[in-house]
What we know:
By secondary structure, the protein is of the alpha+beta class. Helices cover about 45% and strands about 25% of the residues.
Amino acid sequence: MIYEHSLKNKKVLLFIFAFFLVVGIFLFLYSSVIFQEGNPWPQIKGISQLNFTNKDIVKLSKPGNVYMTKSKNGQEIIKDFMKDNGYDYIEQIGSGYFFKSSAGKSVVVHKYYSHYYSLWNITENVEDKENSLTEGLRDCLPKSDTASHEKCNELLKQITDYNSCVEAGFSIMKSNPPQCATPDNRIFIQND
């Protein structure tokens, strides 16, 4: 009887040890993905809502105006979401999607949370200064003449941090933490 009880305790302890070992290995291997946005609970809650409800887009319970979609058809979902909120799609430059409405302009910045989920940071009522920077860069970057090159260099000097780099329409690199690179080889790291 005592031997059976002791054997049962050993099996329970072995099971608990194996469980924590598997969880530890999982966290070690995937910690860069899980903790890329800091506290993972808002993203875990968003993933649960996307998978166990009929929602296509969910607002995350974190500071800012951040939404989550599944990566498949995420672009169409965010365009429909913005249209439902009175914004018309203008264009996409890099990871930035530009919208306009009678109330103002909006930039939606896309970032992959994983292969299956996307984060969308919505900035409403963007100032014309940012749009003029984007439009100026879009105009001068493809040109190779000296005047365009000088104009681009002046506009690129206005990009001083990660947010201004993303708002100018340059892509976000898949790294931890996320990084944005400009054509003049400067790299800005997100400091959230």
